Structures are given as C-alpha cells and as structure tokens.
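Lab channel / #folding
Pinned by the channel admin:
"Please post every new chain as: sequence first, then the structure tokens as a reply. Keep commentary short and put observations after the output so the thread stays searchable."

First post following the new format, from NK:
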Amino acid sequence: MTSGADTDRGLPDEPAAAGARGVEAPHTTAARTGEVITSSALHAAATGADTFPGTLREALTRRGLSLERVSERLRVRGITISQATLSSWQRGRSQPERARSLQAVDVLEEILELPSGTLRSLLGPRRPRGRVTPVGSERAALQILGEDSVVEKALGARFRHFNQETGSLMVHDIVRVGENGTMSGISTTNVLRASRAGADRAIFVLSFDDEAAEPVDIRVTCGRLAEATYLKGLKSLVLEIHFGRELAKLDTTVVSYAVDVSPSETPATHYERWSRTNLHEYLQQVFFHPGALPVDCHRYVREKVGAPPRARRRIPLSDTHDVHVLTSRCKPGVHGVAWDYGPGTAGTGDRPG
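Reply from TO:
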C-alpha cells in the first residue's frame, strides 16, 4: 500500500499508484466529523458521474470499448479524433471545444448509447488557447508519480490543482497488519500549512495493491469528511477533508483520519508513502499481530514511483511488535518500510493514499 502527503498507497499522504485498465463509476458519500462511513454506505451511494471526464469514462467502461475502437468508429463516420485526444478528454486534461471536436461529442453519445446532449451539457467554459504549462503542484506530482498514474486517473481534472493551496509539514502514519498478514487498517495525522490565504480543504488518495482489499470504515477525527469516493476499477479511495475554517497564509491545521480495510487474499509485504514536497518530519509505524510477526524489516527510499529502492537499512522489531522510521527533513520521493515473513509466504503490499 502507498500513501502520500496528498495521496497514500497502502493508505496516506501522497500515493504511489498501481496500474488499472478501467475506471468504474465513483461511489460517493459524505459524513460529519468523526462519523464512520461503512462499505455498504460507500457502495450504496449514487453512481452517476457529474463531470464530462467522469461520464465519458463511465460510459466507456459500461460499453466495454477501448479508445482505439472508439477512434475507429469515429473515423468510419468521417471524424478523425486520435486515441491521445480521447485519453486527454477522459482524464480531464483537455476538453472538446473546436467545431470538429463538438461534432465528435455528438457522435460519441450515439456510440456510447447515451441520451442526446448528455456529454455536451457537461462541457465547461472554453479554456485559454495556447500550450498549457503544468502548475507547480501538478509538475511536482508528475515528477514523483509519472504520467498517467492511478492518482491522476482518480482525480481527473482536479489533479492539475492537486492541493496547491497547502503543503504538508509533518506526517505520522500508523499501519496495522492483522493475524493473517494482510493490512487491516491505517491511520494518518497530517500537519498542513497554507501557501495562500483562503485554503479550506485538502484531498487524499489511498491506493491498494490487492483488489480484494477495500475500505470498510472511514473515520475523520480532525477535519470534516466532505467526500469519500471509492474507485473499484483503480483500487483507490479519494477523500476530501475540509478544515472547518479558511486559513490565513502560512497558517497551519491538523487533519487526522483512519481507514479500516477488508481482508485481502495475500499478505502485505510493504507500505509506502510518496511526497512531492519536503516534509519537516515523517514518522512511519507498522504494528504486527503477534500471530504474524516478520523475520526481517527494513526501510528504503525511491526517487520516484517505480524506481529501484535505495538507502536500504534494517530496522528492529520492538517488544510491542512494531517497527518505526523517523525521518527529519524528509525529501520528496517515495518512503517505505518492507518486511519478510520468511520462506513459504508470498504477498503484495497494500499502498495507502
């Protein structure tokens, strides 16, 4: 599992991402501060997408059509729209605006068996012409996550301005491993500082490696949970947490949340958090059930998602069956803890986000 200042993989700060083929319609619900959101509530919430990218992705998934096939069907009807352009539309990186593109939208509604005007009605105002340079928050995230990451897919158009009004100062992750060796839950405390006046919320993405692992309970003890969207196709949970007030520039606030995870099919072997900014301090703790103690634990760092681990160092297991890593002046990158159960145990780590 991975987590990050804005995303978690395994479950917290800024997440690393695992690849996925499709995006299912989001299951969204909201709760008051401290309220528990159960999996039944998550899955019972409305499934209709209310944005152009989300509706397009949902329709593609429902029809089981690849972008290549859609591009071919458009071409047969005399409209040339590349797969790259279609991909950009469904990810929220651009939107149809020119006459040819708007004509393609009308035909797309027929191909995807959508009511006339469904996609057209969701298009926003025209965007400024010219090459769009990634804003600082997007550029920094892309350096760690790479292009077309799970986090970018999960956030869509929101990825471009991903938490640009705040930055993490300190993060404390507590990961719990159950008796069967799978991750049972994670709790995160994040101290944020506003980079501009008016900041009042932050988004966190939690990504899971094992598709059998899903969020069961979500509790927010500092802040107010405004959105909890589980994207099963991406194995990712998106949380939007409001601070309860608007921050002045350089003002700080604390966000704390916990997520319980349903049992997965394979033991977890690592936990990672990615961060695109310097953290003053990062504390990572992993608690193991007495019936699932590892034979070896070590810490490591990756420069970016997918890069080889470096700075590996063994860390001891305490009498209370936990390991911890405290890093001061934590640089951008992916910071993880891995463990080994010995011969005969194979698994994949869950990643918080």
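NK: The radius of gyration is 21 Å.
TO: also worth noting, Residues 99-111 form the longest helix (13 residues).
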